[in-house]
Specification:
single chain; 562 residues; alpha+beta; Glutamine Phosphoribosylpyrophosphate, subunit 1, domain 1; 2 domains; seven-stranded antiparallel beta sheet; 19 strands; globular; glutathione hydrolase activity; hydrolase; GGT-like_enzyme; acyltransferase
Length: 562
C-alpha cells in the first residue's frame, strides 16, 4: 500500500515536501517512542507533559499539566474559563471511561430575557453567552480518580511560565492578532491579553500573564473549591452582576461533572469510540456507518468519488445533529438508534452517488415513524488519555472577568431560542457542544488516541483521519497531513436553517480536476485555508511495543516521547 500511495499524484494526496525518505505528502516524520508520549498543539505544553511522564506521573497527571500550560501559551483556544471532555483508558481495570466536564446555563437566565431584548439568537460575545466553566472541576475529577502527583506540582510549570513569560509561536500569534479588535472592547481583556492594552504579541515576542499565574496558584493551593465556592467564584459573580450578566454563587457551587459511558460503532475491523450528546461525537459514528459499505480504498484519497460520499454522509449526520443532539438530562435522546447499522442502511439510500443533495432533512432514528485545544497522552503503563478543552470562539466571549487572567467561554451561544427545539435554552442546562475526544480500539485494547479541533469541523475531521488510516493505509502522520475538505451550510443545533447544497471548502492539495468533478455533481466548491481543524494522535503498535505520534501541520504543536 505504501508503493500505491507513493504512485498517486501529488495533487491527489495533497502536498509534497521533497523529503529524502518516506511519503512526500508528510510534513514531518512520525514521532516514535517506547515508554510514553504526548501530542498537542504547542511545544512548551507538550514538553511539560513529557516531563511529568518521565518523573513517574501517569497519563492523567500529564494531561492536566499540559492543559494548564496550554491555557497560558494558547489562551485564545482554551483555559479555565472553558469546558473539558475526556475519554480515558484505564490500564488497570481495562475499561474505557468518558468524562463530561461541561457547565450549565445560569439558573436566572431564560428565553424571555432574549425576547425582551428582541434577539433572535444568543450573541456569540459578551456575558449573555456565558455558561459555567467546567475545566477546573474536570481536572479535579480526573485527578481524584486517577492522578498520582499533586495538583500543585502539576500546575507549577504553568504558574512559572505565566509569571516569567514565554515566546509566542507562529500560528498562535496569528490567532491572537485576529482577536485584537474584540479584546479591545473590554478593558480587562485588553489589559490581560494585549501588549500595553493595545496590540497582540507578535511571533517570538515574550508574553507574561501574572494575573493567570495568581489564579492558578489559588487553585493549586485550595483546589476546585476555590474556583466554584471561594474567592474566584465570588469575583466571577461580582463581575457578572456589575456587567449585566446572570451568574450566581449557587450556579457555580452547583456545578458537577459526569462520568459517562463512551459509545461506539465498528468500522472495518476497528471500534471507534466517542462521547454521547451533549457533544457532537456521534456524528462521526453516523458518518462512518454510512461510508462503511462503500469501497473507499479503490477510490483513493482526494478523489471526487470519495469526497462526494463524505460530504453527502456528513449532510445526513448533521441534519440529525441539528434536531436530536442536546442535554440528555432534559430530553430522552435516540443515541442508540442514531448510531445503529440498521439506521445507516436506511439513511444510505438517500445518498445519490452522482448528485449533491440540497436542504437535507433529519432522518427518523427511531426506525418507526467552533477554537479548541486537543491533547493525547499515553504513559508507560499504557493508560490512554484523549482530552479536549475549549473556550469555543477565540477568547470565547471576549470577556476577561476582572484581573483573574482568563477569558470566559461563550458556549451559551450554542443554545436555540426556539421553545420547541430539543437544544432550547433553559435554566441549568448544558448547551450543545462541539468539542469531542476520540479513541479507537481493536480486539478489546486501545489502538489510536486522537482528536481534531475546530468547531463543526471536528466530526468531519475525525472521519477523514480514520479513513486515511484504515481505508487508505496511511501512517499516523500522513493521515493528518493529507489535504482535507470541510462542508458548511447544514441546519444547526441553534435553529439555523440549511443553505441549499451548502459549500465545500478544500485545501490546496485537492486538485482542480477533483474540484471540477465535484462541481459537476452539483457541489459549490471553494478553495480556502485555515478552516480545517487541528489534529493530534498517538497510535500504539502492541507487537513492537512502540508508540507512534503525530501532530497537526496546520498548528504549532509537536508529538514528543521517551
Amino acid at each position: 500500500m505504501r508503493k500505491d500511495l507513493e504512485s498517486r499524484s501529488k495533487d491527489q494526496l495533497g502536498g509534497g515536501y521533497d523529503r529524502p525518505y518516506g511519503l512526500r505528502q508528510q510534513s514531518r516524520s512520525i514521532a516514535v517512542a517506547r515508554h510514553g508520549m504526548v501530542a498537542t498543539s504547542q511545544p512548551l505544553a507538550a514538553q511539560v507533559g513529557l516531563d511529568v511522564l518521565k518523573s513517574g506521573g501517569n497519563a492523567v497527571d500529564a494531561a492536566i499539566a499540559v492543559n494548564a500550560m496550554l491555557g497560558v501559551v494558547e489562551p485564545m483556544s482554551c483555559g479555565i474559563g472553558g469546558d473539558l471532555f475526556a475519554i480515558y483508558w484505564d490500564a488497570k481495570s481495562q475499561k474505557l471511561l468518558g468524562l463530561n466536564a461541561s457547565g450549565r446555563s445560569p439558573s436566572s437566565l431564560s428565553r424571555d430575557e432574549f425576547s425582551k431584548r428582541e434577539l433572535k439568537s444568543i450573541p456569540d460575545h459578551g456575558l449573555l453567552s456565558w455558561s459555567v466553566p467546567g475545566c477546573v472541576s474536570g481536572w479535579e475529577t480526573l485527578h481524584t480518580r486517577f492522578g498520582t502527583q499533586s495538583l500543585a506540582d502539576l500546575l507549577s510549570p504553568s504558574i512559572k511560565t505565566a509569571e516569567e513569560g514565554f515566546p509566542v509561536t507562529e500560528i498562535i500569534a496569528g490567532y491572537w492578532k485576529n482577536s485584537e479588535k474584540k479584546l479591545s472592547a473590554w478593558l480587562d481583556s485588553a489589559e490581560t491579553f494585549l501588549i500595553d492594552g493595545h496590540r497582540a504579541p507578535c511571533e517570538g515576542e515574550l508574553f507574561c500573564n501574572p494575573r493567570l499565574a495568581h489564579t492558578y496558584q489559588l487553585i493549586a493551593d485550595k483546589g476546585k473549591q476555590e474556583f466554584y465556592q471561594g474567592s474566584i467564584a465570588k469575583r466571577l459573580v461580582e463581575f457578572s452582576q456589575n456587567h449585566g450578566g446572570f451568574f450566581s454563587l449557587q450556579d457555580l457551587a452547583d456545578h458537577r461533572d459526569d462520568w459517562i459511558d463512551p459509545v461506539s460503532t465498528s468500522y472495518r475491523r476497528y471500534d471507534i469510540w466517542e462521547l454521547p450528546p451533549s457533544g457532537q461525537g456521534i456524528a462521526a459514528l453516523e458518518m462512518l456507518n454510512l461510508l462503511e459499505e462503500y469501497d473507499l480504498a479503490s477510490m483513493g484519497p482526494g478523489s471526487a468519488e470519495y469526497l462526494h460520499l463524505l460530504v453527502e454522509a456528513k449532510k445526513l449526520a448533521y441534519a440529525d445533529r441539528a434536531q436530536f443532539y442536546a442535554d440528555p438530562d432534559f430530553e430522552k435522546l435516540p443515541v442508540d438508534e442514531l448510531i445503529s447499522k440498521a439506521y445507516a442502511d436506511r439513511q444510505r439510500k438517500r445518498i445519490n452517488p452522482d448528485r449533491a443533495a440540497a436542504d437535507v432533512p433529519a432522518g427518523d432514528p427511531k426506525l418507526k415513524h467552533g477554537d479548541t485545544v486537543y491533547l493525547s497522552v499515553v504513559d508507560k503503563d499504557r493508560n490512554f488519555c484523549s482530552l479536549i478543552q475549549s473556550n469555543y470562539f477565540g477568547f470565547g466571549s471576549q470577556v476577561t472577568p476582572g484581573d483573574l487572567g482568563f477569558a470566559m467561554q461563550n458556549r451559551g451561544s450554542l443554545f436555540a431560542l426556539d421553545k420547541h427545539h430539543l437544544n432550547r435554552l433553559e435554566p441549568n442546562k448544558r448547551p450543545f457542544h462541539t468539542i469531542i475526544p476520540a479513541m479507537v480500539t481493536q480486539d478489546g485494547r486501545p489502538w489510536f488516541c486522537f482528536g481534531v479541533m475546530g468547531g463543526d469541523m471536528q466530526p468531519q475531521g475525525h472521519v477523514q483521519v480514520l479513513v486515511n488510516l484504515i481505508d487508505f493505509k496511511m501512517n499516523v502522520q500522513a493521515a493528518g497531513d493529507t489535504a482535507r475538505v470541510r462542508h458548511f451550510g447544514d441546519a444547526t443545533p441553534t435553529g439555523e436553517l440549511p443553505q441549499g447544497v451548502g459549500t465545500v471548502v478544500v485545501e490546496s492539495g485537492i486538485s482542480d480536476m477533483t474540484i471540477k468533478a465535484l462541481q459537476d455533481k452539483g457541489h459549490h466548491v471553494l478553495r480556502s485555508k485555515g478552516e480545517f481543524g487541528g489534529y493530534q494522535g498517538i497510535l500504539i503498535d502492541w507487537e513492537a511495543g512502540v508508540l507512534k505520534g503525530a501532530t497537526e501541520s496546520r498548528k504549532d504543536g509537536v508529538a514528543v516521547g521517551y
